[in-house]
Specification:
- The strands form two sheets. Strands 1, 2, 3, 4, 7, 8, 9, 10 and 11 form a nine-stranded mixed sheet that branches.
- Helices cover 33% and strands 25% of the residues.
- The protein has one domain.
- By secondary structure, it is α+β, with helices and mostly antiparallel strands.
- The longest helix is centred in the first third of the chain and has 20 residues.
Length: 271
């Protein structure tokens, strides 16, 4: 019975890898080193935008009205084919009940031996109540950045100890839940500044509940890059064997293209 169960689990994970690998960058050295799931088209309306102020950008999607409702705290205005967003407020997407994000699941399987060993090492370093930032540090020390994986579940990450943003988010979520912190996985877009260039990428990060609200936290170390905005397309609600199909649906309905626009000073804003 045990051998049959293992084979079934491996088959589900192989299928999951095939589905998620479609979101990975396709070719080239940059793609192999990318910490992201996929690249989103981004242009700037003009040069010399002041990045010391909250980023403002047009987000194009198949259904801008639905996108605007979902990201309401970020919305500046709604047009026929896009939503003008401002990275001043992070939107909290449903479900919001923190008690739903404490248990071990197929994806966040912190009850497995490999995860239990890592959790013990983390407690030895930080004590029985590590902070989210300490868990981030531990995850970054544990995972060797690589795009060779394809959204592993937490116990696989604990064994292979390599991966991109998805593996960082999954392992962080597992270790945080093991420490009693309500944590969930968010999928969406991150806009990153690297030197004088901007990029928009499909990304996975985590959200922790601090007792009053959900807060985003990114376990992935974006070396040489400065994240300017996180835009969640959805929350991983299905943490069962079919989790990758849910993620694919999130990205299919999400942002397709971004145009970064002028960031006027507050006194010049026409709102």
């Amino acid at each position: 019975m045990q051998r049959r169960a293992v084979r079934s689990r491996d088959l589900r994970l192989t299928l999951a890898s095939v589905v998620l690998f479609a979101w990975a960058p396709a070719t080239g050295e940059t793609a192999r080193q990318s910490p992201y799931l996929h690249v989103v088209g981004l242009t700037q309306a003009r040069e010399g935008i002041d990045f010391s102020r909250p980023l403002r950008f047009e987000a194009y999607a198949k259904d801008p009205e639905m996108l605007g409702k979902k990201l309401a705290p970020m919305v500046d205005s709604l047009a026929a084919d896009h939503v003008l967003l401002e990275a001043r407020s992070y939107p909290v997407l449903p479900p919001t009940d923190p008690s739903a994000f404490l248990a071990a699941t197929f994806v966040v399987d912190f009850d497995q031996p490999a995860l239990a060993t890592l959790a013990t090492s983390m407690r030895e370093r930080y004590g029985d109540e590590p902070s989210p930032r300490q868990i981030v540090e531990f995850v970054r020390d544990t995972i060797d950045p690589s795009s060779a994986r394809a959204f592993d579940i937490a116990s696989q990450v604990a064994v292979h100890r390599s991966g991109d943003c998805s593996e960082h988010a999954v392992l962080f979520t597992a270790l945080a839940r093991a420490a009693g912190i309500p944590t969930r996985i968010a999928a969406g877009i991150v806009i990153v500044r690297i030197g004088d260039k901007l990029g928009a990428f499909g990304h996975a990060w985590a959200e922790t509940h601090d007792g009053s609200q959900w807060r985003p936290i990114d376990p992935t170390d974006i070396e040489g890059g400065e994240p300017l905005a996180y835009v969640p397309d959805g929350i991983m609600e299905n943490e069962g064997p079919g989790y990758t199909f849910g993620l694919a649906w999130i990205y299919k309905r999400g942002i397709e293209r971004i145009v970064v626009v002028e960031n006027p000073a507050p006194e010049n804003r026409d709102r």
